[in-house]
Every structure is written in C-alpha cells, then in structure tokens.
Amino acid sequence: MFQKMLIGGKLVGKDSAKTSIKIINPANEKVFARVPKGTVKDIDKAVKAAKKAFPAWADTPLAKRQAIVSKIADVLAANAEMLARMMTKEQGKPLAESMGEMGWTEGYLRHYATLEAKGRMVQDDDALQIEMRRVPLGVVAGICPWNFPVLVPFWKIGPALITGNTIVIKPSPTTPVTLMKIFELCNDFVPAGVINIVPDENDLGKALTSHPDVAKVSFTGSTETGKKIMASSAGTVKRLTLELGGNDPAIVLPDVDVKKTAEQIFGGAFMNAGQVCMAVKRVYAHKNIYDELCNELAKLAEAVVVDDGLRQGATMGPIQNKAQYKKVKALIKSSKKDGKVLSGGVVKGRKGYFVKPVIVRDVKDGNDIVDKEQFGPILPVVKFSSTKDVTRQVNKSAYGLGASVWSKDAAKATRIAGKIESGTVWVNHCVHIGPHIPMAGFKSSGLGVEQSTEGFEEYTQIQVLSVAK
Ligand code: NAD
Q1: Nearest CA to ligand 1 atom 26
Q2: Do domains 5-244+445-468 and 248-434 have the same CATH topology?
Q3: Is 101 among the residues known to form the active site?
Q4: Which of 54, 130, 318, 344 would be 358's cystine partner, CB 3.0–4.6 Å?
C-alpha cells in the first residue's frame, strides 16, 4: 500500500525506492505500507498552501467550520473498522484499542464542533467602547508522536479549524499512514489547503518550527524535542503549546483495597503497552501493603496475552518501533540489576517488538527505571513509610504531567494530591481525560494547555478594538 500526502488539496507523492518511506508493522517487522518521503520543499509548499487558504477559511462562518469538523467525525465513524485495522498494523495496539482511538477521536471532534472562541466587552461607557476579540493566528504546525497517531493530531486539528486557523501536520515518522488515509477520505469536503500533511524521516520538524509563515506550533512528544522546538521557534516568536513527557507517580496509602487498586493501577500503567504520556510510570506503595500490591500486580501481568493486535484474544500488542524497543530492553536489563523482576520480559523466538509486562520491586529513586520515563510495559514499585516524605520524593522529578493518590480516605488523599507538582492529580482513579478537561504539565512536562476552553483559546490571538466615542 502506498499512501499519498495531502498538500493544498492535492494528493501527491511518487512511490519509488528513493522517494518513499517504508512503514514497518511492529508485530512482524515487515513493511506494511509506504508513504512519500517529504522534503523541505514540500514543507514550504504545505505552509504556502495553508497560508493561501487562511483568509477565506478564517472568514468562513463558524457554523460552516463546525459542520466540516462534524463531517470529519462522520467519516471516522463510517470507516472506523477499516481505519482501526490499518492502525493496528501500523502502531501495534490491539484492534479493540484502535477502535477505541477512532471512537475517542470522533467524540473529541464532535465536542470541538460545538465550541466558539468568544471575546468580551472590556469597557463600554460614555468615553470608550473597548472590545476584546479572539482572532485566529494563521498557519498552525502540528507535530505529533506515535503512541496515538490519530487522536493526538486531531487534538490539534479540531481546535485549530474551529478557531479559523489552517494547519500543517507532521506525523511521527513511524505512524503516518492511517492519518493520511483519513485526510484522503475528507479531501472532497475540506477546502484545499486547510489541512496539509508532510511525512518525514525525523528530519523536517525544524523546517516547520523555524518557518516564518508558521504562527504557532502545537507539539506533542518528548521533553528533549520540546526544548529543541522552543529554541528553533524563538527566532520568529511563535506561539507554542508543548505537551511533553511524564513520569507519573501513583501513591498508594496503606488503607486501600489492594486487589482493586492493583487492577486500576495496572490498567493505567499498561494500556497501549505503557506508551501513554499520562500512564502510571512509578508506583510508591506504603510498606504495610507493599508485598501484597507487588504480588497482585505481578499476577495481573502474567495474565496479559501479548500478541499481534489483529489476533483475537491479544490484550497487549508490541512496542511501536525498534528504537523504543531497544530503550525498553535496556531498562529491563538495568532493572534486573537494581531490583527484583517479578514478571514478564522480552518475548524471544519470534519476530516483532514484543515485551510481556514487567513488574519490578525493591527499586529506589535514583534507579533508571524510577527516574526515567520508560514509555513501555515496565512498572517499578517503590516502598515508602512516611506520607510526608513520599510527596517530597515524587516532586523531585523534573516531570509533572500526571499523578494519582489511592486511599479509602478520599479527603486525606485529596490533601496529598494538592501537594503534588503535576498538571493533573487523580484520586482513586487514573488516566482520565476529556475534551472539556484542561491538560497541562508542570515543569518539564509542558508549556500551555490542551483541551478545555483554556486549550481551545490557545489557538487564538487576543485583539483589542478600542473605539473613542
Ligand atoms: P519525539 O519527541 O521523539 O517525537 C515527536 C515528534 O517530534 C515526531 O513527529 C518527530 O519526528 C518530531 N521531531 C523530532 N525532532 C524534532 C525537532 N528537532 N524539531 C521538531 N520536531 C521534531 O517523541 P515520540 O518518541 O514520538 O513520543 C514519545 C514521547 O511523547 C514521550 O516522551 C511521551 O511522554 C510524549 N507524549 C506526550 C504527550 C502529552 O500529551 N504530554 C502525549 C503523547 C506522547
């Protein structure tokens, strides 16, 4: 399969050994599709097309923009199964999770389609009428990761389009196909140049983030790349929204129902093979329930069926790409040295980047598996004895995306939650997000906010019209 890219309403790209990128199915390491290898020239053309489309799109009545975003949601719904199969081949997640991603994306789009960027009257008296308006910015660049290859780009496309901006998407080099297929399916009703996409081999980000005609960069990815984006967009003072890495702690107090809590934490840690920005990435369990919690987590890990996501019965797919697989393997190796591995490990004797869920106990702060973002199916469990210390301990991290606190005493857990330096802290649940809920990171986990009214407004510029009477 060869999937063309969309620039200025045209599907372009030639399939040849020199001009295509091979997309690998992580479940068998075979090429499952090819896409054009975008160039700096293509980025330039895409930005030009988006800039050309901007004035008419910004002037399009809100109701029409909302209708077009709703129609994209209709296309997703009508083609969900075909697209989900494609995504499982491309990304690796089990088919049910791919179907889930299609459903969520549709839901987010339907929510965005009800929104409006509202201004307000700041002053209206005998002397002056001062109105604050929210106007679109122009061309937005959306730079995306590989863990949710459809959902994350539409978190940018939806708000950008409703507020009257046009957009150029740069997908992750390993997961561009399903998204490009969706753009092809929508090309007969989305005006030319409003949505554009240029795939790359991890080499075109800078061309977008330093482009003088890009007004805003909305980036989701690693903290390391986020810092590079801040630097390269400084020259043109671009608006930035950065959703970066996390190392989300789960603090488990001694009064919990251990079995139930283990199940919830396990779900929050291993969904999408642990490749979720807000996944539980380190557990801090009180010493009184430490052994029991570790054992329950290990039991759950043993029950997971790791297989090709298209196989019936698979509950976890492979790691998405070879580079991440290598990183995860190195963390498993260091975990064996630093602590005790209770379950799982690398699946040997078959093709594909498969890892069975790993639970590591007897590890401490300072060990790689606790301090670094694993972004894969390994979960370290750290023992603690003082609630006061544990808050200080988890706050030492440079990350501050999400966290969770677990206790039968919700009021006590909420007090602890308020002391954790994280954009979201869940009490007795985890990884709960939605289009109406602000999503922001403390410290190195991000800049700005996505979702909610506050995130939506980041796609606008404040303009004050001050009229003397
Ligand atoms: P990554 O930073 O390696 O890549 C993300 C995107 O940035 C890719 O499209 C990549 O090609 C592009 N890129 C690479 N170098 C660039 C540069 N110099 N300039 C501009 N763009 C560049 O991240 P990844 O490995 O794809 O994703 C995993 C990371 O993303 C994890 O750290 C995870 O926590 C984070 N993430 C965060 C969120 C969130 O909402 N906070 C959501 C999903 C993933």
Answers
A1: 145
A2: no
A3: no
A4: 344
